[in-house]
């Protein structure tokens, strides 16, 4: 087990280097540091000295991939690509355009992001699975077909609509919850309520359909017939046998998402004014702060890879047949 | 008058001709014909396809761009001056483009939405709802609606009669009876009903758009109906072109990874694992941001804003394509791996059939259902993604008409009381109908084509 995890972690390194290379190319080759300096300085007359000073301040004053001024191995190491990558790998995300430390910003904002994303994830998981099981129980009935049509309709409406409609109804017209804002601790629960509800509801269509198809695939298996032949009740067959066997495909789709919950939801957080990582990213995108976007790309891909490893580990926990 | 081709126009028409060519090729194969018959046997699928066809029709109308020669100016320049680039849709709705109001007005309103301060002839200032400028005061809307419905009915019935005649030839009367009974192989009754409904809706909206702002006006007084119709092209283009641009890459890499194995497989697997591990929105954002800076640094590339926004749309489609090929590629690799172990491939190899022929004759046809399913499945997701991306600020150009931009602008007006709802509402409804139709059709395609559903 331990050897397997170690092997997977080592395998993750080339992928992270690849991610890094892609983001580096996007950020530094399409726009050279000189271009960035010009955009950032924004003054009318920009002298080469000013650009040089800006690049030195940022540490962007080295060549991109090959340094012809150096000898031997440092021809490759004394370059922008290597120094920037090493910084990212040691979680040193540098400073943003507004001169704040990105690393500590990220630590600060993870909490609010999780406060929204974790409850949404948990509640959505439970409601979707239970709804899907109910539909499978009544499969082929009028309830099943109407709910499936409803699910397609829920899926077809833009997520932005749910947010806007929710804000108008619950905050503006009925004044049940504040329209936006955030507070940590138990006092903040009224701020969290609406985004979580909307998050759960907007995913219900595709979620229920997905779980239902998984359970329906199981229901035609031989073990289900055996269980029924033993005289087990339909409820017991569904909730014990089918649910457990459906766990494996569910895990594949679900566990991967868990680490990325840290990243928060871009849209939700910016609509509800929650100071999490999602709104952080949106602000960075709209103010064209490349350093932050780069940090978030790196963090996001790392969390995704962690999710993949967790998925494999969860297999061994839930399926005794799988041995790593 | 001069036709002018934007980049996306070239792609749209090129794509259409390729699709028609393939459709012509496929129509000669009995098996494929049977599959399509099976898909359209469901009346929901038929109705969805007709809705999608209408959206496509508006896209095509909006993809023919022309420029008109301007009046010769006093300066004796040799060059003929051309006006702005306009599309056929712009020409049809020319009256709506010219008739901009001052600010918001509700659908079918005769007066502005907000009171303005005016000074009357006695020098007294008061607040009043000003009448809209481009509303015909004496419009007999009921009478006009009736005429519109009649015209719509006439046009649609004409189309339908031509179609029935073309299909049945001499047995026209008999065929007509069968259709009315709903006794045909394909659900033509539903199809014709849908066509009549949609054409009547279009004519009604169009006739009334001369007298009213049918769906209201936005902040700067632009007509919302016109904007929603213009947005169709953006949405459909993003939905279709993205998948079709990434399709060759996904097929090429997926098939070669599955078939050749070894280091080719390793490299391709590494490539798509890396790409798919970057969060999609962030990769798109990073790409679009870089592109923005690039365009900002080279303002001389474009003659008009339309060309700039068009190229931006193309870039967006490319970036979306880069982020979305990985899923399909993984599926195709797995399927190719499975197929290449099968007896008929081994047999073909034993007969000495070349590799390329094996791919063309044995592997690609067996992958077609996966490809088709993923094209229709991705479509609705991409249309919805456009709105979100425009909201984030990495979508299409802000000057371009799109549902995302409409929502984004209208969102700021939510705080007003009573609410300005029509802009949001129109964008959501237009988007909802398109996505719903696509989802319903893709469901049907999946149930018919997916071999796992045979049981």
List the helices and strands and how they pair.
The complex is a heterodimer of chains A (about 325) and B (about 450).
Chain A: H1 2-29, H2 33-41, H3 48-58, H4 74-77, H5 80-89, H6 102-137, H7 142-156, H8 159-173, H9 189-219, H10 222-229, H11 234-254, H12 257-260, H13 266-271, H14 277-286, H15 290-318
Helix pairs in contact in A: 1-15, 2-3, 6-9, 7-9, 8-9, 9-11, 10-11, 11-15, 14-15
Chain B: E1 2-4, H1 7-26, H2 30-40, H3 43-61, E2 65-67, E3 86-87, H4 88-92, H5 94-98, E4 111-119, E5 125-131, H6 141-168, H7 172-181, H8 188-208, H9 224-260, H10 262-277, H11 280-297, H12 305-340, H13 343-350, H14 355-392, H15 403-411, H16 422-449
Antiparallel strand pairs in B: 1-2, 2-3, 4-5
Helix pairs in contact in B: 2-16, 3-8, 3-9, 3-16, 6-8, 9-10, 9-12, 9-14, 9-16, 10-12, 11-12, 12-14, 13-14, 14-15, 14-16, 15-16
The CATH level-2 architecture of the largest domain in chain A is identified as Orthogonal Bundle
CATH superfamily of the domain at 231-449 in chain B: MetI-like
Would you identify the CATH H-level superfamily of the largest domain in chain A?
MetI-like
Strand content of chain A: under 5%
Our measurement of the CA-to-CA distance between the termini of chain B, rounded to an integer number of angstroms, reads: 59 Å
What is the C-level CATH assignment of the domain at 231-449 in chain B? Mainly Alpha
Total beta-strand segments of chain B? 5
Radius of gyration over C-alpha positions of chain B, nearest whole angstrom = 26 Å
Largest sheet: number of strands, sense, barrel closure of chain B = 3 strands, antiparallel
CATH architecture of the domain at 231-449 in chain B: Orthogonal Bundle
Mean pLDDT of chain B: 83
Mean pLDDT of chain A: 83
Q: Tell me the count of domains of chain A.
A: 2
CATH fold node name of the largest domain in chain A? MetI-like fold
Number of strands of chain A: 0
Helix content, binned percent of chain A: over 70%
The largest inter-chain interface, given as chain pair and residues per side, is:
A-B, 47 and 45 residues
